[in-house]
Design goal:
Largest sheet of chain B: none
Oligomer: heterotrimer
Helix content of chain A: 10-25%
CATH architecture of the largest domain in chain A: 2-Layer Sandwich
Mean pLDDT of chain B: 89
Number of strands of chain B: 0
Largest interface: A-C, 57 and 48 residues
Strand content of chain B: under 5%
Chains: A alpha+beta, B mainly alpha, C alpha+beta
Strand order of the largest sheet of chain A: 12-11-10-3-13
Low-confidence stretches of chain A: 1-68
CATH class of the largest domain in chain A: Alpha Beta
Helix content of chain B: over 70%
Shape of chain A: globular
Largest sheet of chain A: 5 strands, mixed
Number of helices of chain A: 11
Shape of chain B: globular
CATH class of chain B: Mainly Alpha
CATH topology of chain B: Formate dehydrogenase/DMSO reductase fold
């Protein structure tokens, strides 16, 4: 039950951190400098809490600034996290196109504004049916066409279900983009804007910095998951639309509320988008029944450019018609 | 059928190898100019990124891929024609078979470059060989094209050995020393002894058969790049054979065009006659009918079943792409069939025009296969950027396309300065007098 | 003379610059946002957690304040003070051992956390006052129903227990968070029971951790009782290597076989043809 025990895992995290803090890390000198500039400790000794609750004094020179945790290397990122099979559930009844998920994703992955790894569509299945907001991350399919067609193995699926792209391997043939029936992949058509995030070694789990001529997509925030944290879109959503969890322990959470995956699937008739295609997505949707907001709310708070995206939806066309 | 002796044939053809006219140089330089424009465009694309093309996240493949399919199609068609004609020992093939073989090799050399232009990281192309995944149709293509290229070059080489030997042994031939040396090296001390002839003939028969098989497999593989995906309009079992037929159709068209050009430029009226145009024309007609049938079958089932995505796609084809669709799938099929089918219209120039229509229609056909499907994804494109919604190719793409055509012309021109464009050895093969036609 | 003046001016400028810079640095001390939390654990140890955040420059969101010294006080006396630095998550934690005697004040315990003078943040102090609560839990199967039997009681300084009413929530820890599996209240006698749900995945032999919690109670703060029991569904967390599929690293067998046959067939013929060319060469050599 170790992998389910959040307490143990936080302890473990703490231990790892303590180890990192304690180990002499001469190589960390530049890192340390950057943090020292911000808030210098007066003494040259600092106190560190060990996993068993003892306070130790550690020489500042041996201190390493650890923000979250180190990113997985390309080699480490090939292995899935043990004992995990991730699942996402998106509650369409709660989405009002606040676009916070997209923004958090763009910020976290240093994407330019015109690149969206999670995209919000306004879908209307037929003119007679009701429209609804439809956030679409990568579905991390269990039968991923994008992975099948990759000629160089740059995109791969891990045991924990995550499909990643190695931007150092990708040759940019874009076959995966035509392979994906959900338009989940984006291409770096030009040199990405200079990095605004702190300098980091490349890891497919974060996929930053992006590289011109390669393909990017939603990575389920694999870097966060490694630290047992929720993806950025999940925590950013003000409505708690996006639930995330480990299907093996049958539990999903949106940060506030934790529910059983099987219960919510039963109660709300969860489904997967375009099930007929046989791609077996890891992302489930809850139908927009008993909505928290009227659809038009999603059109109110967005700028005109974003609004114009939806002009071809029947519902939006009817809105602009004089009554 | 007239028979020719080697002396008079050499006399007829060697001038082209010995001397070059000013017009030839002017044409060559023009094509090199177009080629250099392409090089410049490629430079821009590499330095600024693929943003300079019209491709965007939805239409990720543009006219580069269209050109790729197109050139590969021409190549496989050449291979199929030369292979089949060789095996059937069709007597009339003799003056035209070299043209078919040339088309095969040259377009096969050009085609893959369009894939390279489409690839985002040219610096990583070798990864295709370093880290291959054989589940990917692109890997199938890499293997298939390599195999095909090797086979086609081998086949072409087998068919020019005898001519090389003739050129080597011709004392009157007035060419620079390096050319003579080259002939001597390439002719491989072939002297035409019965045993050598036996070996050569066996080798050629094997390669002719292999080339037919490879052409079919390889072009199907190319079709499966599209067919295996789930995209509406692509995910179709008919795509393999459909592509093969379409390839032969366009290749036959190109063969007529090249025949016509060589006949005019090199004054080959004596050798390439209406008979040859008609015979290749008949092939064009039959293949054209098949191509029409396949096209109809594919769109009929999509239209009748009318699944949402298929219906959207067909709507798009008949609205945004209406005239292109009419040209590719009505005019491009019916006009060639009418011209060749009715005796009255069957002149060399008319057949030439029919061939041009065929060639253009088939390019457009590939365009209509690639672009409208990519503009019709399952999730509707919701974007405010017009270039993200609709594909329109840029000067960079057109320049590189033109450069492809230019390189095709340059290579044909250079080759015609090295080897006679009509197979001399085939023409003097007197013992084979069966007047078979297909 | 001129040179001397210049030197003098530059010295003054230097001093002004330094003064400005340093005063600026001190003036920019940020205001901390803090959260102080008390949890009494199963083994009667107590965890004090202080999380510190602040707004960095013009940022919209607050970020964690790392490496800030926090002094935890478990009584009034100076010797009861522990200093702990916040870690990279902006959290300082101090665990009071179960056997440590804590001073009582009017029957209540007091705890405080203080940000010590430091260059980053302004000082701040938070405190908690509470009555010591005991929470006990028994996991029993009654009439083939998995039942959690629990009781709550106040503990005075002598260790005497007085039953009290309290609301208790039950959780099972999961990958990212705790799953609530039930809630209940104790009666005047301090007793309560609830049914435990079926079908919750446990570990490979069905073991589950059950957490009973009195939460954010005005009088008692947080009190926890954690136990492990095999009430879950035995679950295999070890995902074996994938079977061969189109999308795996290794291709399906039929694919490799088909490709090999095709390639051997074609390249075999090529080799034969090249051999024929070699024969042609050889024949001519024999003649000459």
């Amino acid at each position: 039950m170790e992998n389910n025990d959040s307490k143990t895992s936080s302890r473990r995290r703490f231990l790892r951190e303590g180890l990192l803090l304690g180990t002499g890390a001469l190589a960390a000198a530049p890192l340390l400098q950057s943090c020292a500039e911000e808030h210098t400790m007066p003494a040259d000794k600092v106190k560190v809490l060990t996993p068993d609750g003892k306070v130790l004094e550690v020489d500042r020179a041996n201190l390493k600034e650890v923000k979250g945790s180190q990113l997985a290397t390309t080699k480490e990122a090939i292995q899935g996290l043990p004992g995990r099979k991730f699942v996402m559930v998106i509650d369409l009844a709660k989405c009002k196109n606040a676009r916070k998920c997209t923004e958090a994703c763009q910020e976290g992955h240093d994407l330019s504004k015109d690149m969206e790894w999670i995209r919000i569509y306004l879908l209307q299945d037929s003119p007679e049916t009701s429209p609804y907001w439809f956030p679409r991350p990568c579905f991390h399919c269990d039968n991923p066409m994008c992975v099948s067609v990759c000629p160089v193995g740059a995109t791969y699926k891990r045991t924990d279900g995550i499909v990643l792209v190695d931007a150092d391997r990708c040759i940019g043939c874009k076959f995966c983009m035509t392979g994906c029936p959900y338009s989940a992949r984006v291409f770096n058509w030009k040199e990405p804007k200079p990095q605004s995030l702190e300098e980091k070694d490349y890891s497919p789990e974060l996929n930053v910095p992006a590289k011109e001529g390669t393909v990017g997509k939603c990575v389920f925030c694999a870097d966060k998951l490694r630290n047992n944290e929720l993806p950025r879109c999940v925590t950013a959503c003000p409505m708690g639309v996006i639930y995330f969890g480990n299907i093996l322990d049958d539990t999903i959470t949106n940060g506030d509320e934790t529910i059983r995956f099987s219960d919510i699937m039963k109660e709300r008739s969860g489904y997967r988008y375009l099930e007929t295609l046989g791609t077996v997505p890891s992302v489930f949707y809850l139908p927009p029944v008993g909505r928290m907001f009227p659809v038009e709310r999603g059109l109110e708070s967005i700028d005109d450019e974003t609004k114009s995206r939806y002009k071809n939806v029947d519902y939006v066309k009817n809105l602009s018609k004089p009554k | 059928m007239k028979t020719f002796d080697s002396k008079s044939l050499l006399k007829d053809f060697t001038p082209e190898i010995e001397k070059t006219s000013i017009a030839w140089w002017v044409t060559l330089i023009t094509f090199i100019g177009i080629f250099l424009l392409g090089v410049h465009a490629l430079g821009r694309q590499v330095s600024e990124g693929h943003i300079v093309t019209g491709m965007r996240d939805n239409v990720v493949w543009g006219i580069y891929i269209v050109n790729f399919i197109f050139f590969m199609g021409l190549s496989y068609a050449g291979a199929l024609l030369s292979g089949v004609l060789h095996l059937y020992k069709a007597e009339w093939r003799k003056p035209v078979i070299r043209i078919a073989e040339l088309i095969t090799v040259i377009s096969l050399l050009i085609g893959p470059f369009f894939i390279f232009f489409c690839v985002g990281r040219l610096d990583r192309l070798h990864y295709l060989v370093l880290y291959p995944r054989i589940q990917s149709p692109i890997t199938w293509d890499v293997i298939a094209i390599t195999t095909d290229l090797f086979g086609c070059i081998l086949f072409l080489y087998l068919s020019i050995i005898e001519d090389l030997a003739l050129l080597r042994d011709s004392l009157e031939l007035n060419v620079p020393a390096w050319k003579k040396k080259l002939y001597k090296f390439l002719a491989m001390s072939y002297t035409g002894t019965p045993e050598q002839r036996k070996h050569l003939s066996q080798a050629r028969n094997i390669m002719a058969a292999m080339i037919i098989a490879i052409a079919i497999i390889v072009y199907s593989v190319l079709a499966w790049i599209f067919g295996v995906t789930l995209q509406p309009g692509w995910h179709s079992t008919i795509f393999g054979p459909y592509f093969v037929i379409a390839a032969v159709y366009s290749g036959t068209g190109l063969m007529i065009i090249v025949m016509w050009l060589f006949r005019k430029i090199y004054r080959l009226e004596k050798y390439i006659t209406l008979r040859h145009f008609c015979n290749v024309g008949y092939i064009l007609l039959v293949i054209g009918a098949f191509y029409g049938y396949f096209t109809f079958a594919d769109y009929l089932t999509k239209w009748y079943g009318s699944q949402k995505m298929d219906a959207l796609l067909i709507d798009k084809l008949f609205s945004n792409f209406f005239w292109l669709f009419i040209f590719a799938n009505y005019i491009g099929i019916l006009i060639p069939i009418i011209i060749i089918g009715i005796r009255k219209f069957r002149t060399i120039n008319n057949i030439f025009i029919a061939a041009i229509i065929t060639l253009l229609a088939l390019w457009v056909n590939r365009f209509l296969i690639v672009i409208p499907t990519l503009e019709t994804p399952y999730l509707p494109i919701q974007d405010h950027r017009i270039d993200w919604i609709q594909y329109s190719s840029t000067w960079v793409e057109w320049s590189l396309s033109a450069a492809g055509v230019a390189v095709f012309a340059i290579l044909i021109m250079l080759f015609s300065k090295l080897i006679p464009i009509i197979s001399i050895s085939e023409m003097i093969e007197v013992e084979d007098t069966s007047d078979e036609t297909i | 003379m001129q040179l001397y003046k210049l030197q003098y001016i530059s010295q003054i400028a230097c001093i002004i610059a330094i003064t400005l810079f340093t005063s600026n640095a001190f003036a920019q001390k940020a205001e901390p946002e803090t959260e102080f939390k008390y949890v009494k654990n199963t083994d009667n140890s107590r965890t004090l957690t202080y999380s510190v955040k602040y707004i960095k420059g013009d940022a919209k969101k607050s970020s964690e304040a790392t490496n800030v010294p926090i002094s935890f006080n478990t009584g009034i006396a100076k010797e009861n003070t522990k200093i702990v630095n916040t870690n990279s998550f902006g959290i300082a934690q101090y665990i009071i051992p179960a056997d440590q005697k804590l001073p009582l004040n009017n029957g209540k315990y007091s705890f405080s956390a203080t940000i010590i003078e430091n260059p980053l943040l302004e000082s701040k102090s938070d405190s908690i006052t509470l009555i010591d609560l005991g929470l006990e839990m028994k996991l029993e199967v009654i009439d083939s129903v998995k039942t959690i039997v629990f009781s709550t009681f106040e503990i005075d300084y002598k260790g005497l227990q007085t039953p009290v009413k309290a609301d208790v929530v039950f959780y099972v820890p999961r990958t990212f968070s705790k799953l609530k599996v039930g809630e209940g209240s104790t009666d005047e006698k301090g007793n309560g029971e609830i049914e435990f749900p079926n079908g919750i995945p446990g570990d490979s032999i069905g073991n589950l951790t059950v957490i009973a919690r009195v939460e954010e109670n005005e009088m008692y703060e947080n009190v926890e009782n954690v136990q492990t029991i095999a009430w879950g569904v035995a679950t295999n967390y070890h995902i074996a290597k994938f079977h061969r599929a189109l999308w795996t690293t290794v291709a399906p067998r039929w694919m490799i076989i088909t490709l090999t046959i095709l390639l051997l067939g074609v390249w075999g013929h090529y080799i034969f043809v090249v051999y024929k060319l070699y024969r042609i060469q050889k024949v001519s050599k024999q003649i000459s």
